[in-house]
Amino acid sequence: MPEYPSIAALDRLLDDLVVGEARRRQLGMVRGELLRALGQDALPASTRRSLRQLLAEEVLSSYLRLAESGALRARLVGGQRPPTSEATNEIRRQCVDVLRDAVGLPALLLGGGALPLQPTPAFGDLAALRRQLDRDLAGHMPPGRIRLTAVLGLVLDAAPRSGELAALRLADVTPGTTAVYVERRPQRGGGDPDGAGGCVELSPLTRAALDRWLPVRAELVDRAHGTSRLWVSLWHNHDGHAGEEGATLNRPPGMPLEENGLVTSYRRGRAQYGLAGLLPPKLEQLRRAVLDATPPRAVEPAEPTLPPWQAL
């Protein structure tokens, strides 16, 4: 697909834009759709040269109708390009206003406001989940289940967002795995109303899960030449970027697990390990259930003496 000056200007704008990781991914989706719309000659020729023309109200109205129809999808779904969901449509409208605001244009306010929140598990379900994880820890578990159990324990104790969870490093876990430091990253900036930040106390369940995960992690990281990230990959995968030969680059086990990988491992583990009856479909639903039922408890950080496994 040819390069367009307006898309190049949009790329520079996105590079300088201060937004959260989730919003950045959403803006990347919009950028890809706009590029495909230009490639399909679906927008006026003037929009190829000027970013402000590309973000003009009448142009964006045409873009939104086309995108909502599914015609700008990057991938086929069942061999077709069906209309996008209302949730995706709302996100797209919000991103349009973010971009217009960034170039000094007034917001179109086409969005309907905040998306309705998905239902969260009840307190009794969280208690049942803890009991199941405790039983699992008493027996043999494959590496994937060990990692998922440790992830779930941290969510039950500290209620981190997926990006906050993925960003954790070994040094964020205190000696003796008694607490974890979580740096809160609200998507819309400002303070964090969603529970305690800083050091959060860990339950005996999570401590036991981390004690199972850390030796597995250390062995994986040793093969991959080291990283300080708490969550690492279990298998060979690719980074999604083509190398000089056109093939994607291989990543060995033990590489940092990014946010998308962490969310995917939650979704797969929920089905693979028979936890669908205890875990909601999305990790964010579990986080909000924890905030509603048992908000995280902040503690004073321990003295900064690192155990051997933190020496990486």
- The helix count comes to 11
Distance between the termini: 43 Å
Beta-strand content? 5-15%
Percent range of helical residues: 40-55%
Strand order of the largest sheet: 1-2
The SSE string, one letter per element, is: HHHHHHHHEEHEEHH
- Overall residue-averaged pLDDT value: 84
Cα shape: elongated
User: What class do helices, strands and sheet pairing give?
Assistant: mainly alpha
Supply Rg. 22 Å
What does this structure look like?
With 312 residues, this protein is mostly helical. It is 46% helix and 6% strand. The protein has a two-stranded antiparallel ribbon. The protein has a two-stranded antiparallel ribbon with strand order 3-4. Helix 4 packs antiparallel against helix 5 (86-102), helix 6 runs antiparallel to helix 7 (143-158) and helix 7 crosses helix 9. The radius of gyration is 22 Å and the shape is elongated. Residues 239-248 and 304-312 have low confidence and may be disordered.
Give a short summary of the structure:
The chain has eleven helices and four strands; from the N terminus they run H-H-H-H-H-H-H-H-E-E-H-E-E-H-H. With about 300 residues, it is mainly α. The strands form two sheets. Strands 1-2 form a two-stranded antiparallel ribbon. Strands 3-4 form a two-stranded antiparallel ribbon.
